[in-house]
């Protein structure tokens, strides 16, 4: 693997999942692979799971890790070509990416979308510039439109826990007071499209995701109908895509979308976390036995570890 | 040891101090004990000594360490049960504690009190929720009402430096411009009550600590009388406990409480640091030979190291 | 080497450069030298290259590294002697430096100048107080008036890339919208004065550097004349020294000083980074083959590594 910025970087998903599960069973089997190799993790946004799981994954492989909160620790970056840098940006991503490549063997980047400028977000200007100018492999720790490490952890989780050959997986929108990115939904849908599952998406009218994401995945606007006989219910809020980055109505007006035990039925409950209790999902679900969110979070380690292993194996 | 959140987690203090001193003499004797074990240190507040000493302690034991400044790096946590999380908190401590337990083998937490809500502070809502929901051992790096790693370092220091079988130890309040927590005073008193020392507490009337802390420890309001023939003088400010979190008068009006060479007599001067010079204590004392504050700070490493060693030994 | 706070700490520059180049060829040759030794890096200001390169350098030598952003993570420091600490500073550098010396074997400090108080800046009150009170060696990661790790990396770069016995090196001022320190210019000039190069400095009238820095180095106010037949052109902005910390005119009024391909001629282009594109230097130069800024940044690792090696070898 030369990089991991999106699902297109996966050549054989089943093999990747199998290898991740093997690493989970034996996390230190490759702890010499990363010796004298350094992962530089750059955060333009907050992180809990992504940071801790990726750091642990790298460490399990024997890598050294540097964590840099770019906004507070370093210099404000310029991403535009040809700019006269006479204002508030101090360093161009061209230099930053090349320079960081001198100090790290792999660069991981987290950079959320603006949610105000759709074209800019869809250009993935942060991570795509790091890929363009870095001379070492780049890993996406959630970008403007994708969260492929999360989606791989989700695929591992569903593979581990599924009791059927072809489980029914439902992605349900749920209300949230703030405007949230589409990254998790995009990557989850993309990942499920690669797996042998029956995928349904449900959300209120007006919250349609991009055609590039949806492809031929069916949308069922009636949440109850969508959830019927589900094996896995993945819940996630996203802001409007058409009226880009907007939240169309209050949480209260969408409170019927909150996932409850009754809605969940016999399905397993999934969420990438952090999750707002009693807004996205009722306490009873999160505290119940059908919630697999903690195991999902655990699988973030092995999702990151298998990706880093593949990248390390490909270094010289 | 299953956790170290308060002095109650100590079963045999003398043995713990002896073992800490043995680690001080031979810090790397157990550097394989923590191999492939990770300490996740969560800071909700500033730290210098606690962070550096605990990091060194873990490293001496061969542990990996992750430092996370929770407020700036991660998501704002919710601590209330049953809340509809429709406002500014993004993640519930239930998930956070369980999730972090997937990535770390020991979790250490620093979270200061509000000093405005006594009941909330005394419930120790941050650290007690981490203990409740984490599935790995929790270490207190100073909580709302306790600082047991500091108190253990203090006990080590007094044990090392005492020239008497039963030294006289005085805890003296001193003035400070800001409202400070009771944690250090509480834990120091609790620790001294477990040791074979003659303990006296002195402070201006109105600065009484809680009955739960004081038990039968005598208070002498006349500082000069209290300090007479002291072997160790531990100085610390705390805000009002009765009129919770208040500073009753200006520093100047309490300037007679500042510790000077004359007040100190032949005693050793102790303070947990950071200390405000010429407010808490005169330069002459801190720069003189009777000050043991740097050695106290040094003992923070071995206080943390013995606690982590005991916890690691108890991990199956 | 007992410390590295300025160029005066170098006893044999040629030997130091040779050893840095040997480390570059074989970075792990001394990876047992730093075993069980800890570098504590204290940042009072932002950093990208300095942090990552120094961290990698220490790691190459087998050291453990702690990074602390002092302003956000720790307590506000007092640097004045005899102060009554009754205001916003919580800890005196006397205690901080002594305490950190308990936890680290080497302390590295970055602290920029005020650019408002020349006497204070020239006293190097931050780093000189760390040197005075720390009981372990101190390394300067850029102080008010000096950046000796950068200058050493520059010396390594020029030594590696020079095709002449005595190359012509020109330090050229360039415009910048903000008031910048003199540290890089001071240390670069001081370093070149120690090397067998022909050094010329060029800047607009009024931007004279201190006599202590310049010694007998010639200033040529006409940039074109200064740049003629240069082998290396080092470009850097600095604010006014006489009218201390001021920017005398707009960037536009100095736009003729921006380095272009035409001005550069056949010389190699050097800059310490971060650099403002099309203000300090045109895109064509940075993106061209004569720019060596990325290799300069790479040499920061070996500049730091040779300094840490020398310091570690001197720790009994």
List keywords for this structure.
homotrimer, 316 residues, alpha/beta, Rossmann fold, 2 domains, 4-stranded parallel β-sheet, globular
Largest sheet of chain A: 4 strands, parallel
Shape of chain A: globular
State which percent range the strand residues of chain A make up. Answer: 5-15%
Oligomer: homotrimer
User: What would CATH call the class of the largest domain in chain A?
Assistant: Alpha Beta
The counted number of beta strands of chain A is 10
Helical coverage of chain A, percent range: 25-40%
What is the H/E order of chain A?
A: HEHEHEEHEHHEHEHEHHEHEHH
Looking at the overall shape, the CATH architecture of the largest domain in chain A is 3-Layer(aba) Sandwich
Low-confidence stretches of chain A: none
């Amino acid at each position: 693997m030369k990089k991991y910025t999106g699902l297109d970087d996966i050549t054989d998903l089943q093999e990747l999942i199998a290898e991740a599960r093997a690493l989970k069973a034996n996390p230190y089997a490759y702890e010499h692979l990363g010796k004298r190799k350094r992962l530089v993790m750059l955060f333009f946004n907050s992180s809990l799971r992504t940071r801790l799981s990726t750091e642990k994954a790298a460490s399990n492989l024997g890598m050294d890790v540097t964590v840099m909160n770019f906004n507070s620790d370093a210099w404000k970056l310029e991403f535009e070509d040809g700019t006269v840098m006479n204002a508030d940006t101090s360093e161009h991503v061209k230099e930053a990416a090349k320079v960081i490549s001198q100090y790290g063997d792999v660069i991981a980047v987290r950079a959320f979308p603006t949610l105000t400028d759709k074209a800019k977000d869809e250009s993935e200007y942060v991570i795509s510039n790091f890929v363009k100018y870095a001379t070492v492999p780049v890993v996406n720790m959630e970008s403007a439109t994708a969260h492929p490490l999360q989606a791989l952890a989700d695929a591992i989780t569903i593979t581990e826990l599924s009791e059927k050959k072809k489980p029914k997986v439902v992605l349900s929108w749920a209300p949230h007071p703030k405007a949230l990115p589409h990254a998790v939904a995009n990557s989850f849908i993309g990942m499920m499209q690669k797996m042998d599952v029956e995928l349904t998406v449900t959300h209120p009218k007006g919250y349609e995701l991009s055609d590039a994401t949806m492809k031929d995945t069916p949308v069922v606007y009636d949440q109850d109908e969508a959830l019927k006989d589900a094996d896995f219910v993945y819940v996630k809020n996203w802001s409007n895509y058409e009226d880009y980055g907007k939240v169309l109505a209050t949480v209260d007006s969408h409170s019927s979308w909150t996932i409850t035990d009754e809605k969940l039925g016999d399905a397993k409950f999934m969420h990438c976390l952090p999750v707002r209790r009693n807004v996205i999902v009722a306490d009873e679900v999160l505290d119940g036995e059908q919630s697999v969110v903690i195991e999902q979070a655990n699988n973030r380690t092995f999702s990151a570890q298998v990706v880093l292993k593949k990248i390390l194996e490909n270094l010289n």
